[in-house]
Specification:
The chain is mostly helical and 102 residues long. The protein has one domain (7-97): Ankyrin repeat-containing domain (Serine Threonine Protein Phosphatase 5, Tetratricopeptide repeat, Alpha Horseshoe). The protein has 6 helices and no strands. The radius of gyration is 12 Å and the shape is globular.
Length: 102
């Protein structure tokens, strides 16, 4: 499934890049959707950053684990790129536990 575009997600992605978990939670509580942006979803960014805590928050808020970015990559594929780090391994495990298609 392709990602849908959403301007709100650009703000979420910027906050994820700053590792601002509290601010991301606030936006989600205010109703900002986590479903994704055509080019890059918040979940893609969190997986790319190896931010497992952020991944858990986004999935709990309804982020779809199998959305493809514009390069046809899933968040799981991005988390595997950094597999040398324990945080990336944790990210991959969370995505798999939440139903990502392998």
């Amino acid at each position: 499934m392709k990602c849908l575009e959403s301007d709100d997600n650009r703000l979420l992605i910027a906050l994820i890049r700053k590792h601002s978990l509290t601010e991301v939670k606030k936006l989600i509580c205010q109703g900002v959707s986590v479903t994704g942006h055509r080019a890059w979803t918040p979940l893609h960014e969190a997986a790319y950053q190896g931010n497992a805590d952020m991944i858990e928050v986004l999935i709990a808020a309804g982020a779809e684990v199998d959305l493809l970015n514009k390069y046809e990559e899933t968040p799981l594929e991005l988390s595997i790129l950094g597999v040398a780090s324990e945080s990336y391994i944790r990210c991959a495990k969370i995505l798999i536990a939440n139903g990502v298609r392998l």
